[in-house]
Design a protein that fits this description.
alpha+beta; two-stranded antiparallel ribbon; 5 helices; 17% strand
Length: 151
């Protein structure tokens, strides 16, 4: 079962810490399972199946059948595209031309001050980039991290 849990984490792109956070269990529990010290408890198995209801319980428990339930399509629990799953090419929309963004260049002067130049630097949209994490910092020195499977 340890190897199947590792495979779930790999397919979901989750680190052990993020996997534990998603299941709302102590990170040490996942660490102990992955290093072979402990076997997964019934609580861990039920949390995996509850949080990831598209995982085939027969596969997780016994290793038989497919990893995903038959009705499951794709490799993510999300049905709607979200900020972190942008690789769906056309969702019924027509392609729109990408506008070039303009940035104003700054040139450093001898007295260590900056001044705006009229030089326009063209930047092009890079379609290979995907958002993997968003961090919001608050003025009271706290922060929140948002990722594809965080709540």
């Amino acid at each position: 079962m340890k190897d199947r849990i590792k495979l779930i984490m790999e397919k979901e792109n989750l680190t052990p810490a993020k996997f534990a956070d998603r299941l709302q269990i102590n990170r040490a529990i996942i660490s102990h399972i992955l290093n072979g010290r402990n076997n997964p408890s019934l609580d861990v198995v039920t949390r995996i199946l509850g949080e990831m209801n598209y995982i085939n319980s027969e596969w997780l428990i016994n290793g038989t059948g497919n990893m995903y339930k038959e009705e499951y399509k794709g490799n993510s629990a999300s049905v709607e595209p979200d900020l972190f799953h942008q690789d769906t090419p056309d969702m019924g929309r027509t392609a729109e031309p990408i506008e070039k963004s303009k940035e104003i260049g700054f040139k450093q002067l001898n007295n260590n001050s900056y001044t705006s130049e009229e030089e326009v630097i063209m930047s092009y949209k890079n379609n290979d980039r995907k958002i993997t994490q968003i961090i919001i910092y608050y003025d009271d020195n706290t922060f929140e991290i948002f990722g594809p499977h965080m709540k």
